[in-house]
Write a structure and sequence with these properties.
Elements (H helix, E strand, L loop, with lengths): L9 E5 L3 E8 L2 E8 L21 E7 L1 E5 L4 E5 L3 E4 L4 E4 L3 E8 H16 L4
Antiparallel strand pairs: 1-2, 2-3, 3-9, 4-7, 4-9, 5-6, 5-8
Length: about 120
């Protein structure tokens, strides 16, 4: 059975806002993320259907909080919460938040391709 840990996962992102370590396990990407600053990344999702993340995510908030915004409501998750982020969400991220998240690698790659283009275009 495949496995990983935060120590085993390579640092893929180390920016002022986020440190992310990622590993793929049998078609799922495991993310160990530490959010260092408050961030509303909504502009990065422009170009996806409804300009929202279409990748499902399952995760656990280890510390801090995240908010997933949907068209008709928001869902708030705090330390100790397990969560499911359904397609069609926009995250709000807060400094001091650590989480472990699982996402289907193919769907995540589709969202990340758009996010990458938006970062190159200078969107915040």
């Amino acid at each position: 059975m495949p496995r990983t840990s935060k120590a085993d996962a390579a640092v893929s992102i180390d920016e002022p806002e986020i440190e992310g370590r990622y590993a793929e396990l049998d078609g799922y990407t495991v993310a160990f993320e530490t959010h260092k600053a408050d961030l509303d990344p909504a502009a990065l999702f422009q170009g996806l259907p409804e300009d929202r993340c279409q990748c499902p995510h399952w995760g656990v908030v280890l510390s801090g909080r995240i908010i997933l915004r949907y068209a008709g409501h928001d869902e708030v998750y705090t330390a100790g919460d397990a969560y499911y982020g359904a397609p069609g969400h926009l995250p709000l991220l807060f400094a001091g938040t650590e989480l472990v998240e699982f996402s289907p690698t193919g769907a995540l790659a589709e969202s990340m391709a758009v996010i990458g283009k938006n970062l190159q275009a200078g969107r915040p």
